[in-house]
Amino acid sequence: MSFSITARRSLAALFFGAAGLLAYGLVTAEGTDAALLERARGVFRPLPSTAHVDDYPHSPDRVELGRKLFFETRVSSDGRTSCASCHNPSYYGADSLPRSVGVHGQPMPRNAQTVFNTPLLISQHYGGNRVSVEEQALKALTSTFAYGNKSYEEAEEKLRALNYGPLFDKAFPNEKEPVTAEHWAVAIGAFERTLLTPGPFDRYLKGDTRAISDDAKRGLDKFIGYGCASCHNGSTVGGQSFQKFGITEDYWKATGSVEMPQLKGRDKGRFHDTGKPEDMWMFKVPQLRNVAMTPPYFHDGSVATLDDAVRVMARLQLGRQLDDRDVKDLVAFLQTLTGDIPPQFANVPVLPVAPFRAN
Amino acid sequence: MSFSITARRSLAALFFGAAGLLAYGLVTAEGTDAALLERARGVFRPLPSTAHVDDYPHSPDRVELGRKLFFETRVSSDGRTSCASCHNPSYYGADSLPRSVGVHGQPMPRNAQTVFNTPLLISQHYGGNRVSVEEQALKALTSTFAYGNKSYEEAEEKLRALNYGPLFDKAFPNEKEPVTAEHWAVAIGAFERTLLTPGPFDRYLKGDTRAISDDAKRGLDKFIGYGCASCHNGSTVGGQSFQKFGITEDYWKATGSVEMPQLKGRDKGRFHDTGKPEDMWMFKVPQLRNVAMTPPYFHDGSVATLDDAVRVMARLQLGRQLDDRDVKDLVAFLQTLTGDIPPQFANVPVLPVAPFRAN
After folding, report:
1. Which of A294, A303, A358 is nearest residue B302 as measured by Cβ atoms?
2. Range of the domain at A8
3. Residue of B65, B99, B335, B356 to mutate, testing the A interface (most A Cβ within 10 Å of its Cβ)
4. Are residues B68 and B167 in the same domain?
């Protein structure tokens, strides 16, 4: 459609003298714009309006329960840890730390990724050991790093003691036992599936070529042309495959990554989860949605700035040394992937008032 | 004024036959209402609209900076602790734990009180070792329990690295060095001084006698008559004096309080701060604003429910055994002290994007 508008304007330009000369400049820019948009549409898609799926039916009550549970700290073994501890609205759904801090202040070996748009990814976590956001939320309950409960039953007892019964009843009507760890996970998933962050790039993909700057357009052109988009593509601009980190050289030579005591050495990526030699150094490709808002970068937060992260990626994955102009353009493009924080996430819910663990 | 309206209605009642009989009932209720309101006004005041004071000039930029700093975790020594860790919007400005969890997951010996309305109190903390909210915010930076910085300089360096410079410049114009620990404290104080929570009881005190229920009115009557209001008075319904906890018997016999390793035994209140024998067992009287929303109760969160807390207080401080009706009425009154969460607090700010501690 935008092509035919361009064609019509092009025709008009032939008829209108001086105005035509002016219009000719526009036509050229628009012609380029149209071609770039066409290429972009072959690689990327706008974000959908929600990430709900048939496997996990949702309702407003279920989403609202999930919203509350997301911010609930009292189910954790130190009483202070919630999903929001590592996925904090103040830091665009991440925690702005190189590596996260778990329950009881434990150091974690990896960087927390933003919760935004994650239901659309191939899996959760850098090693892909959690497929859905629901699986992630369920297993977090008994993870010694996350909530630290000894069993799902322990978590369920806390939820009942915290007066969540009536909210689970509403969210899971006609269930014999509404308060279960599985329902905790389904409710949190229902909430997380609403946390999508369309931004200027989506408006661009939908045809508004003025939604992004000329720098960003040059960056987009390079992002596709240099090969970044071979892994970072789709609606989430990445997050759809596992790839080896460090094609041209060992990743830690470029990132300065240190050994992790919890991983008994270098982080070997998916290998820690599968034990398969072919998974050595394989990591989930991160989505790049909101990447400008979520430093530091890589699985261990070893690179502080987006400029440096872009340089490192070009060098390690594509064998390319970027110049300053490249970096400026690519970063300008990446900034168009910043969306607004969903209001249901920025606005923190009041949680059930409950007698709690008094002694 | 409400007295003269009553008088006029009373006069009208004499003239209007059957309507007069009906009106007479109203007159009686209104007469009682007017008398109770008059007594209440002798003890309590509505909350002011802000708690700003001349000593700490404020501006919108200063309040907004304080709001950001309140939620900022990266200034703490574990990168995960902010004012909001213990003063969480989800729990009405407290943390809903018996005793708080400090930086690096350290157990704290005392219960966190709500941040709402606290600038209006005689001091901060149960022992009163922080007079203003500004002093509290300043000293928290180097407290080993709170932010755990080794010095104010360390905190200031972090603030600069986190890109707070321009925000301090705006909030503290014409200052040679805007980014200082003192300005951190003044900004956070400026924000906290906006966190007041008027509720139904304020509307009542301003003359709307239908703003609170009949149960609540009976509770108010008892609250004054039984002597609760001798300590819990003023606009904050407490928080204006230090008193001995446990007049009629040792407090731990009623509360079940256990010894605290950090305090080397029983919590002796203000004595831990002053070392004076006369301060033994003296605690700041808590405000009762939002008390229904902030269990568990007392300095160590040793009592789980508001019903039990009311019984314990009557027994320990006033030597009175309450019956179930008393408790119901008193709790109904206390519930009228619940205000709405200020929107600038529930709505969490986005914090500066900054390269942070990458290695």
Report:
1. A358
2. 2-41
3. B356
4. yes
Q: Give the Cα separation of B73 and B79 in Å (integer).
A: 5
pTM of the model: 0.90
Q: Measure A23 CA to nearest chain B CA, in Å.
A: 41
Position B358 in a domain? no
Distances B203 to A82, A218, B208, B212 between C-alpha atoms, Å: 36, 60, 6, 9
Interface of A with B in 104-133 (CB under 8 A): 104-106
Which residue do the tokens 């009208």 mark?
B12
**Cβ pair B49, B194 in contact under 8 A:** no
B144 touches chain A (CB under 8 A): no
Say yes or no: B72 and B192 in one domain: yes
Size of chain A, expressed as the number of residues it contains: 359
* Residue A357 lies inside a defined structural domain of this protein: no
Per-residue pLDDT of chain A (359 residues; tens, 9 = 90+): 344 444 444 444 444 444 444 444 444 566 788 999 999 999 999 999 999 999 999 999 999 999 999 999 999 999 999 999 999 999 999 999 999 999 999 999 999 999 999 999 999 999 999 999 999 999 999 999 999 999 999 999 999 999 999 999 999 999 999 999 999 999 999 999 999 999 999 999 999 999 999 999 999 999 999 999 999 999 999 999 999 999 999 999 999 999 999 999 999 999 999 999 999 999 999 999 999 999 999 999 999 999 999 999 999 999 999 999 999 999 999 999 999 999 999 999 999 999 866 44
- Report chain A residues whose CB lies below 8 A from the CB of B103: 105
Helix (H) or strand (E) holding B243: strand B242-244
Residue A227 resides in a domain: yes
The CATH number covering residue B322 comes to 1.10.760.10
Do B161 and B238 have their domain in common?
A: no
Q: Are residues A152 and A267 in the same domain?
A: no
State the best of B67, B78, B80, B310 to mutate against chain A, taking most chain A CBs within 10 Å.
Answer: B80
DSSP letter for each residue of A255-266:
H-PPPBGGGTBS
